[in-house]
Amino acid sequence: MRHRVQVETPRGPAWLDSDPPAGPATSLLVLGHGAGGGVDALDLVALREAAVPAGILVVRVTQPYRVAGRRAPAPAGHLDEAWRAVLAELRRLHPTPTLLVGGRSSGARVACRTAHAVGASGVVALAFPLHPPGRPERSRAAELDTGLPTLVVNGDRDPFGVPEAGPSVRVVVRPGERHDLRVDPTGTAAVVVDWLCARGWAHGRPGPPGPDRGDDGRVVRP
Q1: Which pLDDT does position 206 carry in this prediction?
Q2: d(CA 54, CA 51)
Q3: Model pLDDT for residues 138-194, shown as the tens digit of each residue
Q4: Exposure string (b/e) for 38-68, b if CB count within 10 Å is 16 or more?
Q5: Is the entire prediction scored with pTM above 0.90?
Q6: Helix or strand or coil: residue 145?
Q7: DSSP 161
């Protein structure tokens, strides 16, 4: 059952929407929202619906600027500072489960930038915005280079681009999806939970791996 609490951060109050599994949690998955959106984005909700039955405690974080009613995102440093404060409180409340961080778009960037600082074991990046639309020279690929196991799920029609896979970064490309990943959010969630299961961070058996990797290391999943 969804449970919302307010947590104070140096940048103002944040909201935490927590959805616990029926039994002991295998891991704690903390998710952030996109720049102008919220935690009820279709892909985040679908991931919650799929992850909780797999034994994961899912917490979706609403950044202080959205709690204050603003749509324009705060500067990156402010986002990261608030996120670190939220994660410190969550680790105080839930010290045992493996910590995983992630989110969609801007939330995925925050999770990547702070993953080591908060002690995360892995990262889930939905619709990672590789570059501003039409500006491929302004790549944010370095943010994904955390050295931690990272899953990126992007649509092949995303105007923000699709990252390349790397030694610790698995990239799954979903045909027909754009940046909002709203065509098949249930399928997107299944990709994530399969990966979490394969790494031992969730209960259950992973689904089929999908087609083989291409030469660029990416995986296309229907």
Answers
A1: 46
A2: 5
A3: 999 999 999 999 999 999 999 999 999 999 999 999 999 999 999 999 999 999 999
A4: ebebbbbebbbebbbebbbbbbbbbbbbbbe
A5: yes
A6: coil
A7: -
Diameter of the chain measured on Cα atoms? 47
% the chain with pLDDT above 90: 86
* Burial of 132: CB neighbours in 10 Å, binned 0-12, 13-18, 19+: middle
Instruction: Report the amino acid identity of residue 204.
Output: G
User: Residue 129 and residue 133: Cα distance in Å, rounded?
Assistant: 9
- CB neighbour burial string for 177-197, b if at least 16 within 10 angstroms, e if fewer: bbbbbeebbebbbbbbbbbbb
**DSSP element (H, E) containing 196:** helix 185-198
Q: Which of 69, 76, 1, 98 is nearest to 32 (CA)?
A: 76
Q: Identify the segments of the chain with pLDDT beneath 50.
A: 206-217
Q: Considering only CA atoms, which of 98, 103, 115, 110 is closest in space to residue 153? A: 103
| Phi, then psi, of 221 in degrees rounded to 5 | -120, 125
Residue with tokens 């089929």: 208
Question: Rounded CA gap, 88 and 92, in Å?
Answer: 6
- Strands laid side by side in the 122-126 sheet: 3-9, 12-19, 56-62, 27-32, 98-104, 122-126, 150-155, 169-174, 219-220
In degrees to the nearest 10, what's the CA dihedral of 151, 219, 184, 87? 0
Closest-CA residue to 82 (of 184, 158, 10):
10
